[in-house]
Every structure is written in structure tokens, then in C-alpha cells.
Amino acid sequence: MVHLRQVILDNIRKQLQPVAVQYHGIVTPMRSTAVPEEDLPSFIVLYTSDQTTPDGVVYDDTTGQELTRLNHRLTVNVVIHFKGRKDPSKEFDQLAASVERALPPSSLGNMVIDMLLTATDHFIDAGTAQSLGAGRMVFDVTYCTFAGYPDRQA
């Protein structure tokens, strides 16, 4: 049994796969080592928070019980590592635009209520004004589960 949150992240990774293929890069979950240059650009999909609030008690057809529905606000980061050799700002913007087209405001096949881009950051060294060859896009994803059934959409 996997939390619905993980299923959502896996689906976002699948939607980004064509973007990675287009640029000869990779899509991956959270990394534990440096990304090899030959794998750039790299699109890393992870979540940084999942805030939950109860939303009343509703009847669940599957269990035949009344269960507390939980609203989730999931913050998903798509971290983009890129080569950035000639024009890093332009390269990042091109990759970010491709990600935004691949992840439009959507319901991920009715799995979520909404998914909206809320921020885009190109990481720059403040002391040198030099690109760090990375940036991120932040998406707010709203979805519902039942209390006690984190793997099921409510």
C-alpha cells in the first residue's frame, strides 16, 4: 500500500518523461549523489510538504462507513539541473517552459483536485551573479484522502 501522494508524484514524473527525452535528459525522484553531466538536464520531482486539514465526515462506498475526509495541500518541487554553458538564463527558461507545458493546471486524470504552478526560481550565486546551473518550479497540488486510508482518493 502506497500513500496517494506517492502515486501523484509518480504520475508527475511520467508526464515529464517526454520533456526529458526531448532534451536527452532524465527524470528522477530525490537524488543522493551529484547528477552526472551526461544526464543533464535532470528533472527531479519531490515534495517538500503535505499539509492536511479535515473536511467533514462523508460516506465511503468502499467500506460502507462514514469516514473523515482529509484535504491535502501538497507542495511539489521540480528541480531542474542543466548545463548552462552559453546562456544559462535562456536555457533554464526554455526547460521551465517545457515543464510548464507538460504539467498544465490539471487533475492528473481525476486523481487530484488541482495542480497549479506557484513559483519558478533560477538559482544564482548572489556574490558573482553566476548561474548555479539549477532552478526549481513549485506546484501546489490539492487532493483528498480518507482518514485511515492514505492510499485512497476521497
List the helices and strands and how they pair.
Elements: H1 4-22, E1 26-28, E2 42-60, E3 65-81, H2 88-102, E4 114-125, E5 130-146, E6 149-153
Parallel strand pairs: 1-2
Antiparallel strand pairs: 2-3, 3-5, 4-5, 5-6
Short recap of the structure:
By secondary structure, the protein is of the alpha+beta class. The chain has two helices and six strands; from the N terminus they run H-E-E-E-H-E-E-E. Strands 1, 2, 3, 4, 5 and 6 form a six-stranded mixed sheet that branches.
Top keywords for this entry?
6-stranded mixed sheet; 154 residues; Alpha-Beta Plaits
Describe the structure.
The protein has one domain: 2-Layer Sandwich (Alpha-Beta Plaits), CATH 3.30.70.1700. 22% of the residues lie in helices and 47% in strands. It is built from two helices and six strands; from the N terminus they run αβββαβββ. Strands 1, 2, 3, 4, 5 and 6 form a six-stranded mixed sheet that branches. The protein is elongated. The mean pLDDT is 93.
The chain-level mean pLDDT equals 93
Strand content: over 45%
Radius of gyration: 18 Å
Name the CATH architecture: 2-Layer Sandwich
By secondary-structure content and strand pairing, the structural class works out as: alpha+beta
Major sheet characteristics: 6 strands, mixed
Task: Enumerate the spans where pLDDT stays under 50 for 5 or more consecutive residues.
Answer: none
Helical amount among residues, as a percent range? 10-25%
What is the helix tally? 2
The N- and C-terminal alpha carbons lie at a distance of 16 Å
Say how many strands there are: 6
What is the CATH third-level topology name? Alpha-Beta Plaits
Order of helices and strands: HEEEHEEE
CATH class designation: Alpha Beta
